[in-house]
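Hi Y.,

Following your request, here is the sequence exactly as I used it, all 471 residues.
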Amino acid sequence: MKPWLQLVFFTCIFLIWHTEAEFFTSIGQMTDLIYAEKDLVQSLKEYIRAEENKLSQIKSWAEKMDVLTSKSTSDPEGYLAHPVNAYKLVKRLNTDWLELENLVLQDTTNGFIANLTIQRQFFPTEEDETGAAKALMRLQDTYKLDPETLSRGNLPGTKYRSSLTVGDCFGMGKTAYNDGDYYHTVLWMEQALKQHDEGEDTTVSKVEILDYLSYAVFQFGDLHRAMELTRRLISLDSTHERAGSNLRYFEKLLEKEREEKEKEKSINKTMTTTEPVVQSGAYERPTDYLPERDIYEALCRGEGVKMTPRRQKRLFCRYHDGNRNPHLLIAPFKEEDEWDSPHIVRYYDVMSDEEIEKIKQLAKPRLARATVRDPKTGVLTVASYRVSKSSWLEEDDDPVVAKVNLRMQQITGLTVKTAELLQVANYGMGGQYEPHFDFSRKDEPDAFKRLGTGNRVATFLNYVPSRRTPE
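Below is the corresponding structure, written out as tokens. Let me know if you'd prefer a different format.
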């Protein structure tokens, strides 16, 4: 996915001890004080050990972050091109640094806390972490990647390798669970459990993982596996009340299921009673609201609709002079047919590197969550099917904007007088804009009434890749 995309539409011990006085009157009582003092010394040593352990954790975190940030700051765009790096960056700043803050708050390190508090206002939020997790799952689905591949960081076309810990996988699963997405809950809780079973060091317990996993599996109707996972949970924590209650509930459902099958068997002797067992990872991804989902994702994978040889023969490359536009006669643009119907063409080298960088520089401070127009109310609102940030540039902002607009006018033969502003869209990690119509349809007659220009007749997109350092 391209990190930068230009679109133009034509378009963060108190020990309380109360006792009576005059211990000196009784050696027996004073010997009690000896043991009490011994206990205080032990408590003091435990406090020291806790402090040393805390400092050791902070030092280890600082050293790890020093190595990581040295790598990430040397090539930010290349580093963030790996979606796992992008997810973990958001997760670290929203969750991990908060945990470190809680650890440091146990001490009087006011300078660090004050600095962290100031910086926190610029940190990602819970919503950001949730969005980043969903974006990673969207990439997982679109490119048919299993959790193991994502967790190990084995992603093709990425410069850096980054893996997910048990805690990361558990966090992914919790995000899915909280969204009612039991399909991804199962996938990521299974991956968390797998890495836990392999001995990976983590603060997440198997009990926590199994609690989410067993319930998500139950949501798929796999009673046998739900019971198996719940029994494993109880073997680790026999006092887990919810697990015990769930197990009894599952057993009742299973018994009811057996009774119904016995009843059916008495009616139809030939009916098979073999119990189908759903294996781990065999659950199908649920269908959703988008009928074109499969085709849309196949296109992203480069597996889209294939053109017949006969149609391919009608596609050509040529030099385009804008119907003998004087500005393009000496320096025409290279034009290539991408599709025949609807007619889609590609132009090469439309913008210079300097123009690209200038437009990105102008747009970056203005980027805001992209919105869509509600077809019923006409009000602009954010939507899950459009995940990006965008900004709009006017010709008065910089001469380069006017130059680019004029160039597109020369190429298309359409006037910029009725065009919308130059829109710069940044599709970040897992960014998307699901299949949609740029123009208004019959049920949206007033979609562009505010512009006073009529309906949209063409879309001109300038794809701008991010800068990458040599491999």
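The chain has a mean pLDDT of 80.

Thanks again,
Q.
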